[in-house]
Amino acid sequence: MTTGGLILTGWDWEPSVLIGCGVLVFLYWRLVRPRRRREFALFIAGDLVLLLALVSPIDSLADEYLFSVHMVQHLLLVLAVPPLLIAGLSREFVEGLLRGPRLARIEQVCARPLLAWVAAGAGFVFWHTPLFYNAALAHEGVHIVEHLTFLITATMYWWPLLHPMEESRLSVGKAVVYLFSASMLNTVLGIWITFAPLGSYPAYIQPKDTLGALSLIRDAWGISARTDQQLGGLLMWVPAGLVYFSAIVAIVARWQSEAEFCEVIEPQTGERNGR
Amino acid sequence: MRQVTSALESHSPLQHGILHVTIVTLVIMFLIMVLVFVLLVAASLRYRQGRRPGEPDQNFGNTKLELAWTALPLLLLVCLFILTVIAMRESDPPVASASGADPPPDIVAVGHQFWWEFRYPAEGFVTANEMHIPAGRRLLLRIEGFDVIHDFWVPVLGRKMDAIPGQPNEMFFEASEPGEYGGTCAEFCGAEHAWMRILVIAQAENDFQLWIRQQQSLPPAPSEPEAERGAQIFRTTSCGVCHAVNGVSSGRLGPDLTHVASRQTLAAGRLVNNPVNLEAWIADPDKYKPGSFMPNAALSEPDLSALVRYLETLR
Amino acid sequence: MSEVRVALPTIRKLEEIGKRTGIFGWVSSVDHKQVGILYILTALGWFCIGGIEAALMRTQLIVPENRFLEPYTYNEIFTMHGTTMIFLVIVPVLLGFSVYMVPLMIGARDVAFPRLNAFGYWIYSFGALLLYFSFFAHDAPAAGWFAYTPLSEKPYSNLQGMDFWAICLVIIGIGTTATALNIIATVATLRVKGMSIRHLPLFVWMTLVNSFVILGAMPALNAACIMLLVDRQLYGHFFNANGGGSPVFYQHVFWNFGHPEVYLMIIPAWGMISELIPVFSRKVIYGYAVVATSTVAIALLSFSVWAHHMFAVGLGHTLDSIFAAASMLIAVPTGVKIFNWIATMWGGSIRFTTSMWFAIGFLLMFTIGGLSGVTFAVVPIDWQVTDTYYVVAHFHYVLFGGTALAVLAGAYYWFPKITGRMLSEPLGKWHFWLTLLGFNLTFMVQHSLGILGMPRRVYTYPNIPEWNELNLISTIGTYILGISVLIFLWNIIYSARRGKIAGNDPWDGWTLEWATTSPPPVHNFDDVPPVKSARPLWDLKHPEDPDWLRKSKKARAKKGR
Amino acid sequence: MALNLFSNKSKILMSAFVGSDAVFFAFLITSFVFYHGSSKGRPNPWRDLDPATTGMYSVALWASSGTMWLSEQALRRKNPRRVRRWLELTFVLGALFILGQCLEFKGLFSKSIYPRTDLFATTFFTTTGFHGLHVLIGLVMLLILRGLIAGGFGREDYQIEGYEAAAYYWHFVDIVWVAIFFILYIWGTR
């Protein structure tokens, strides 16, 4: 098998995923009624990334062959999809939504930063401990729960940062702490995986090889099981950390470049203490 | 003894990629430097005080311009990164194939305070500070640290690699044509770090095989009485505790001396190997390499010259 | 945001302390200005000692196979040179300027915790003396400033030098951390009314960011030193390969400190440059938001690039390339700064004072240092030139060409404020040109030496013709550099007594420190001018075109849209 | 204002310090995790630890966080008697923990397990020892607070804030012990 062949044949048109993504777009179209092109584009992009992560060769490789690709998948689910989807929501829609007292109550609880942080962090760490990770690989049902956990907790996590109603977002200082601490958690997990013993994720050492792509990966791409696990850990450690860092920098940059509004009063000719 | 030690020369296919990416990078960096310099000088000349009256226009910035000089370097660095990854693969190909087969090393280089031990496991002999390799053949080199961290570095033949106790490293090693290439320990390792030089002698395949056979053989037993007496001294004093001479002693703490007289240098590049220097070195190692672990054996003048006579027979 | 008005009794107490003179006055002082001066002068003293060590090293290397210094002595000297310059000179001198200037620039009476401030200085001083005491104990540390294990472990460094080193670094680290905490608390609580975080002068902003870097980085150094001490004193096995430990683990922990350290030695220097280039160009800083934000980006990235010091360790291509990518990224916000500074000069009306000359020198030299830094992120180049003189050249371009020139620029800029007298400009020009000449002679050729295969930290080298010439040039450069330092010292001594009286605002500056007397009174300000932007004094001097008015207009335009 | 997460300078100082100190412990714990399993010499060196006994003393430490919190509440309510009582109880609980650690170390020493014994012991003693040092410093701090309270400290608002800032440290030490206990004694001995 060649790389091109893998890209062509590695698609796994899992109906539940297709239906899920379809429903998402349908609901968005009917309920949110996108009016601004930018928001529409962002939401669709989020949906496409979701689709890409779950049905493209990324998924086939992740499930059987490469731990590192599985990490790419998880990082897409956690760091790319939810922010894009949230950014696609319009302010008007959310305002309308939150007028309902029950929804407003749920939002109030779920978007509490500490809870969201802990839920996202705990979910991410939980599913990457070898015991649960391997269970998810072995049972499709568990795997679906895993991915849903990621999507839901990550949406909770990004909500206070990207809230469509800007006044409800975290203040800069809190946002920096919120993001930085999360990146540290990611880093620790990434470092642990990078240096963990090779047997921690046994499924990738001798893959079942149902696609017949093993020789391609080992020989043509030259990725050994050791490299694979290291790469997976490193992806979570550095590039994922960079996503958090970029978010921090973006927030600080935005805040810094907002002009501050001063009341216009004639500047006092305050006596300077020249002595 | 003229050795080429410049990283801007290449005598190995493994160094080609490094050299290429080095030159490309240095040129790019130089151009950016020139750009900055020109801008700075232009700003300094054009906007000297006094060319216009009053305070100049207060320009608070231009987001588009600033984004441009953020994005352009980023783009440039992405290209540089791709070049980097290509050059890494080219100049340091993976040692073990990804499916897991791990070939045995051809040569094991062990860094000691303050000399290099070179083992040829397949051929079954050990030498020091001077590594012979067949030109044009790619060898697998394993690098180990005996005591502290050293670093094996022969610039014209490719990358450097640390010699770490408890964590052996492996890399490929090759010289494209016969010649003598200088190198050195590049990680600070103690008092005599400066004198821990490496000499790599790349030979045509035939010469290399000859050298192998010579190294494998036992040195001839000393025939003249003076040398014989020297051998006696070697055995009776403490030389053999640290130094091995095949068939005579088996010390491993110092360089193997089985064929010491056939080497070009003494004390890891400190002195040219000739009888006079050898005698001076043994008489007072501290004079030449203070801090090395070679003790002063305090031999009498005649004993010393007998010992040197004996060592000169170890070819 | 609150302006904490210091109660009257406290002011009286401060005045009283300010009247104390002589040694007792200085020792017992908790005034941030006196502590700042102590910091700066102490660092200057250690700079001279570190400089003498540098001169000794270069003298040893002037010809091949020189016998001027014993090898072990040479190793002690280069270890102490590195340790001194980093921990006893650069970090403290930057802290000194920070504790002196930050309260003045934010319109505060003092730092938030004046006694903690003095404690920070004295503990640093004590640690520094203890470190040098190792010379009297006949064994200075000799394992290099990053003290790689196992060389720094008991079996290979069996005298007390490394113990001195590890203990003193922890002690000095305590002082550094205390001062960083103090600066954070000061900036957070003591800003004058009107000075929002977005109106901080860039020097204060960068000092603030830097303090967070210090808090993140110092614990790693402490951990490394503690583990080393446990190994040495309690015969632990952290880095002992025979006991299952890993010498490379030390490198990870150490560089986790070491790389942020590189940035915490330059960030406040950038702050100084960001203050004085605008003033001498008579133009507001170009892109305040970008300069400020890029500092945050650098601070964050500095924690994720440490493994680029370890490319020769054999960590594998995966790790190497990921860290190479991160290391390249850090060049982007750094480059942005350079362009923004040049853009600040562009269109200005530049006054070429000595201070500005040093700032321009900084821009040139730091650009070289930054660009040679990028070459280390290109892993194959690093495989060749790491641990050679190329590295030595690179970090001297960053630390001397960068930080030291910026600090000198800052010294010429703020000397009038601190002493009330100007530094001599003619002497200053001599100082600048000799520094630039000596510095480049010394270190430019070291790039070539490294590429030509000369490893660093060698007490001597074999007789290789190219090396000989370059080493000779380098040594001559060092002597010229030494002369320039002597001129500077003379300039300080002379000008502090006989220099031209400066007045309150000799440079027509824009930040609050120029609104008080030179030197400032103990309580700093009788009355702080109103603050509505990052340049309160510009607003005051240009009532027709104040910064805040422009910004308000912009904000209103945006709101109205 | 963004950076004024905490309005008081002492609290800012202490939270920043505690954040920095957490990094230090992160390195010590990392060393334990990193070297867990690569220790040479004794097989299963962790069998000498006794999570149950240490757990009991740990409960004392964690409880002391609660009593400290109660003393803070009492201070807010201007009830110096209760402040003193809860503070003293905090001290006793903290001292109990230190006593437990001393007994634990003594027991290990009597089995001739020292930091030099093997890598596991090195990382174990370093991590727990440095935590113990922090608790000791905390005890000294509690004594100082007790002395200050006796001298009438705590009436002014800024004094209450200062008291609470000091309490941050004590809570921090307890939280670190949660991490250490679960990683060293539970995960590390499984």
Topology, element by element:
The complex is a heterotetramer of chains A (275), B (315), C (561) and D (190).
Chain A: H1 3-9, H2 15-32, H3 37-55, H4 57-65, H5 67-87, H6 91-99, H7 101-110, H8 113-128, H9 130-138, H10 140-162, H11 172-195, H12 214-220, H13 225-237, H14 239-257
Chain B: H1 13-46, H2 63-91, E1 107-112, E2 115-120, E3 125-128, E4 130-134, E5 139-145, E6 150-153, E7 161-163, E8 169-173, E9 179-185, E10 197-203, H3 205-216, H4 225-236, H5 239-242, E11 244-245, E12 249-250, E13 265-266, E14 271-272, H6 275-283, H7 285-288, H8 301-312
Parallel strand pairs in B: 1-5, 4-10
Antiparallel strand pairs in B: 1-2, 2-3, 5-8, 6-7, 6-9, 9-10, 11-12, 13-14
Helix pairs in contact in B: 1-2, 4-8, 6-8
Chain D: H1 9-35, H2 51-76, H3 80-110, H4 119-150, H5 157-187
Helix pairs in contact in D: 1-4, 1-5, 2-3, 2-5, 3-4, 4-5
Helix content of chain D: over 70%
Number of helices of chain D: 5
Please trace the helix and strand order of chain D, writing H or E for each element.
HHHHH
Query: Average pLDDT of chain A, to the nearest integer?
Result: 86
Give the total of beta strands of chain D: 0
- The CATH topology of chain D turns out to be Four Helix Bundle (Hemerythrin (Met), subunit A)
Average pLDDT confidence of chain D is: 91
Strand content of chain A: under 5%
Name the assembly state.
heterotetramer
Query: What string, H for helix and E for strand, traces the elements of chain A in order?
Result: HHHHHHHHHHHHHH
The shape of chain D is elongated
Low-confidence stretches of chain A: 264-275
Shape of chain A: globular
- What's the number of extended β-strand segments of chain A? 0
List low-confidence stretches of chain D.
1-5
CATH hierarchy class name of chain D: Mainly Alpha
User: Largest sheet of chain A, described in full?
Assistant: none
Kindly report the greatest chain-chain contact and the residue count on each side: B-C, 90 and 93 residues
- Major sheet size, sense and barrel closure of chain D: none
